[in-house]
Amino acid sequence: MTSIDEVARLAGVSTATVSRALSGRGQVSASARERVLAAASDLGYVVSSRASSLASGRTRNIGVIVPFLDRWFFSAVLSGVSAAAMRQGYDITLYNITTDRDVRREVFDTFLRRQRVDAVIAVSIKLDDDETQRLLDLGMPVVAIGGPHPRLETFTVDEEAVAQLATTYLISLGHSDIAHISASPAFDTGFRVPSRRRAGFEQALAAAGIAQDPALIELADFTVEGGHRAAARILDRMPGATAIFAASDEMAIGAILAARERGLRVPEDLSIIGVDGHELGAFFGLTTVDQFPLRQGERAADAVIRQLSGAGAAAVPSPLPFELTVRGSTGRVRSD
Amino acid sequence: MTSIDEVARLAGVSTATVSRALSGRGQVSASARERVLAAASDLGYVVSSRASSLASGRTRNIGVIVPFLDRWFFSAVLSGVSAAAMRQGYDITLYNITTDRDVRREVFDTFLRRQRVDAVIAVSIKLDDDETQRLLDLGMPVVAIGGPHPRLETFTVDEEAVAQLATTYLISLGHSDIAHISASPAFDTGFRVPSRRRAGFEQALAAAGIAQDPALIELADFTVEGGHRAAARILDRMPGATAIFAASDEMAIGAILAARERGLRVPEDLSIIGVDGHELGAFFGLTTVDQFPLRQGERAADAVIRQLSGAGAAAVPSPLPFELTVRGSTGRVRSD
DNA sequence: CTGAAAGCGCTTACAG
DNA sequence: CTGAAAGCGCTTACAG
């Protein structure tokens, strides 16, 4: 690996000037800059991040904490973070905290404290007080995606509004016997996404003057299979349901498959709407409220990088966008 | 952040001894070690990776190059790499090379050369000569997953054997009109997985004395939707087919859905088998040849870490395991 | 087994 | 605008 000294020698300047020319910090004459750039390029020189970060305190690396890697939503967010980070020359190092308590402690107690990263993005992670404190103690920009957090800068989508939009859309199609697939309490810790979506669902019904029947809600686990089972229970117990709002696209897809298995036509017999913007949505013709997870990741990355560039304090981020995407799984209520 | 000096002071030893005690390198008396460990723990001291790596040349960080993040197979491999790496105290930094040629060049020309990682794992990436050379020039352990590479240590599954296993299983169920969903040439660069699976398919048919009809092969793109379309074409053109071997689980799932839409029963009217071990396989009752992608990631991580621990030269890795997982999508050929 | 000290390869006040 | 030099926080021969 060529070092800064070789570049300095070839360019006929000091290493200080090489450093300035390459980093863009400090003054360098145009001619010196040119010679440095040419020399660096000739030699294939790349600044050593270990030396640079020790000297400067900057790593140009962002830590990303995720709870899962193999669920579509999280990989989409991660793709966004990665793309935005690379665009600005940042690396990302990944901390998959899994469900193992020890691994998780280790991440907060050790991994994140190695001074390997300049900032942290926590994706849809329910942080306890201790973990939050450790994050704050890092003394670096920390951004959370997914749910308001009292002590952290957070990118959140307004889950209630999302659910209202989905539900209201079903109502606008004439539906009133609308069931909801939510998630069991185990999935409701932290940002309480299921609760909030359920609340939005109920608010939309109430606003339309539709009486709420608790039986209309079934709990699942955010998977296709769980959605499938929940939809089956719904169809068993209330054959009169004409529409289902599922709290995730995976569950909505499960519901579509459950309906088909019973010979129900979607949307003629049953309208189904989900939430997320899942890649399989188009294939299944699923109407959904898209949350643009890729863009969520990009925004989080851009936000921390902006903070690192010293662009002032953390701006309170505007709520994340969402959008109704109408496809074939929803239609006007059957009029028989 | 507390530094090594504070630990040394509290433990009543030199920083050299702290370093030795914490890293496990070199001799330290039991009593000194104990005091150091206690002091470090009291102070919440974590070795600064930037200082440590500059001094030692070791980063305890592995670079992982992936072509996609949001396809299940890759996230499963990545999960495995992450789990194995964390278990050994390693971080991983992620390079998602996407399809943008410039991003890709940047990864090989700059990102990987920052001295941020001790080793590199390339997951299912078709590397050209130049990229291979750059990887080799890094002078660190490099392991590739997915397909033999003449110049790189590679973890590969024997794709032909995988396809033979799947096909032979269908034959053992009495099928002889077996169609195959492969992938178009665009997906056949690099490790040529589609070609190799197709070859295995054809070999198995030949071995069983079954005549091959080129019309029995349709090309898709490794997605559910592509598999769906390909299966539809197969069912149009050869209604006599009793079984389909799809070169991936996603495509096999698409095929199952296509069959159902036509009112065909799976497996009574049509047996379908895939390859991968996709998480949705169980839900769809898909028979598949599982490739254990999670374990592939773990093995690659363990391999590079072993090399980094100086456990001798790279052992030629044994071929990756695969296994037939029989579920409900395959059955004996219909006897009408 | 232990410590003093050099050195890892940069960055950045500081002086000019 | 530029360079000499200190310093970032560790690790590791080296000497004892």
Describe the structure.
- The structure is a homodimer of 336-residue chains.
- Chain A is an alpha/beta fold and 336 residues long.
- The first copy, chain A, folds into three domains: 4-47, 434 Repressor (Amino-terminal Domain); 61-157 and 294-308, 3-Layer(aba) Sandwich (Rossmann fold); 159-290, Response regulator (Rossmann fold, 3-Layer(aba) Sandwich), CATH 3.40.50.2300.
- Chain A has 13 helices and eleven strands.
- In chain A, helix 1 packs across helix 2, helix 2 (15-23) packs across helix 3 and helix 10 packs across helix 11.
- Chain A is elongated.
- At the A-B interface, helix 4, helix 5, strand 2, helix 6 and helix 10 of A face helix 4, helix 5, strand 2, helix 6 and helix 10 of B.
- Strand 2 of chain A pairs antiparallel with strand 2 (91-96) of chain B.
- Chain A binds a DNA duplex (16 and 16 nucleotides) through helix 2 and helix 4.
Looking at this protein, list some descriptive labels:
homodimer, six-stranded mixed sheet, 15% strand, Rossmann fold, DNA-binding, 13 helices, alpha/beta, 44% helix, 336 residues
